[in-house]
Write a structure and sequence with these properties.
Elements lengths: L7 E6 L5 H13 L3 E6 L3 H4 L2 H8 L10 H6 L2 H7 L2 E7 L1 H8 L6 H8 L3 E6 L3 H5 L1 H12 L3 E2 L3 E4 L5 E5 L3 H10 L10 E6 L4 E2 L5 E2 L6 H12 L3 E6 L10 E5 L3 H9 L7 E4 L6 E3 L18 E3 L3 H6 L6 E8 L3 H11 L4 E6 L11 E8 L2 E9 H18 L2
Parallel strand pairs: 1-2, 1-3, 3-4, 4-5, 8-11, 8-13, 11-12, 13-16, 16-17
Antiparallel strand pairs: 6-7, 9-10, 14-15, 17-18, 18-19
The protein binds cytidine-5'-monophosphate.
């Protein structure tokens, strides 16, 4: 499966003859499993109709910053957060100048400024315009700002010239986009991750559980695999596809999860406890379905084992990372857990804030260690997972 599978790509199209190749690019990205939203400048719409891109991407095409209806459906900041990659192809000389100047006078240039994820441009222009000192200066500024540059290629140009300035072909651009999701930060490192909720049986048909979707743990598994790690994901019941190259072990209860983790933890280099393990389970599981004969009923619960603490108690313990979902005094409680559970790192988030954490697509966290704390701003869970894995890999490599 492609590394673009399930990735969110915003494709920006600017005005240039190469815009026709953007239609093919959308096809190639979709073919690799990416979700694509297209943003077109006014000039781009002179070369290719939004309807074509809408049909190919399966999503409405975004054209205006000031369209209240479009903004209500998916606002520009939301779109910037949604993107795992913002790719502008083709990027005209004029648009590159706009980006280099930090302008935000249309939807695409505004998105570029607002997007904190991967950003790439595929320039397309006449060879003399490409070679001009102004364009080269603008490109250098964009590269300095962290933008990736795909191409341009040399060859025949629409204007009859021959030289550097042609946009790369759709397949080459899709390959380059795919290359953005690889790193070697965790080459040779084994990572064990728990994700999702656990279910604690009351009787054969009922259970106690919580709203964890597993999204954060799955995103971390994917990010770790993309960084070259060999990843085992011990997962409670969730409805998410297994990320590419990840070894998934399905469990139901906290007890199952503990067993699955303990048989693998000793041989793992990094353990990330992302599961929302149920704190308590019924003392006894009724053999038959409990009948509703009484007006009240009592359930006696017993504390579940703390999986992450069992891992950190091992003589040969992995580098251990926990999560602290809190509703108040977030950092104090997170620090308490860091110390009590003997963790190397704890990732704290405030689940009382709407739109982040549990069952949401976004999250905003603080990465807390014994003598440091690093806040990470609100972003999509996959984007956040990529950023977290980058930092955790640096901490893991830098320790001792
Ligand atoms: O104590 P609390 O549940 O808030 O701690 C959260 C952290 O501990 C998470 O990393 C979670 O995966 C882990 N945990 C665990 N086993 C439990 C409870 C929590 O591994 N029984």
């Amino acid at each position: 499966m492609s590394r673009l599978n399930n990735r969110h790509i915003v494709l920006g199209i600017t005005g240039g003859i190469a815009a026709y190749k953007a239609a093919e690019l959308v096809r190639r990205l979709k073919e690799r499993g990416a979700h694509v939203h297209v943003v077109m400048t006014e000039a781009a719409q002179e070369f290719i109709r939004p309807l074509t891109l809408q049909a190919l991407s399966g999503n409405p095409v975004h054209t205006s910053l000031l369209d209240p209806e479009a903004e209500a459906a998916m606002g520009h900041i939301e779109l910037a957060r949604w993107a795992d990659l913002l790719l502008i192809a083709p990027a005209s000389a004029d648009f590159i100048a706009k980006l280099a100047g930090g302008h935000a006078d249309n939807l695409l240039s505004t998105l570029w400024l607002a997007c904190q994820s991967r950003k790439a441009i595929a320039p397309a222009m006449n060879q003399a315009m490409w070679a001009d000192a102004a364009t080269q200066r603008n490109m250098a500024l964009l590269a300095q700002g962290g933008a990736q540059v795909f191409g341009p290629a040399a060859g025949d140009q629409a204007c009859g010239d021959v030289g550097l300035g042609r946009m790369l072909e759709a397949v080459q651009l899709a390959d380059a986009a795919e290359g953005q999701f690889q790193s070697r930060l965790l080459d040779g490192v084994s990572v064990l991750i728990t994700a999702g909720p656990t279910r604690e049986a009351i009787d054969p048909v009922r259970y106690i559980s919580n709203h964890s979707s597993g999204k954060m743990g799955y995103a971390l598994a994917r990010a770790a695999a993309n960084a070259g790690a060999s990843v085992t994901l011990v997962s409670g019941p969730v409805s998410l596809p297994t990320p590419e190259s990840v070894d998934r072990v399905d469990v139901t209860s906290a007890q199952d999860m503990l067993e699955a983790v303990m048989s693998r933890a000793q041989g793992s280099d990094i353990f990330i406890g992302c599961a929302a393990v149920a704190d308590y389970r019924p003392v006894a599981v009724a053999e038959q379905k409990i009948k509703k004969n009484d007006d009240t009923m009592q359930l006696q619960l017993v504390k579940n084992p703390d999986i992450i603490s069992a891992v950190t108690a091992l003589a040969q313990r992995p580098f251990a990372v926990g999560f602290a979902a809190e509703t108040e005094q977030v950092l104090e409680h997170a620090r308490g857990k860091l110390e009590r559970k003997l963790l190397d790192v704890i990732i704290a988030n405030n689940v009382a804030v709407q739109g982040i954490g549990f069952n949401s697509d976004n999250n905003e966290v603080v990465l807390v260690t014994a003598n440091d704390q690093q806040p990470l701003p609100l972003m999509g869970k996959q984007q956040l997972a990529d950023a977290l894995i980058e930092r955790l890999a640096a901490m893991y490599r830098g320790r001792a």
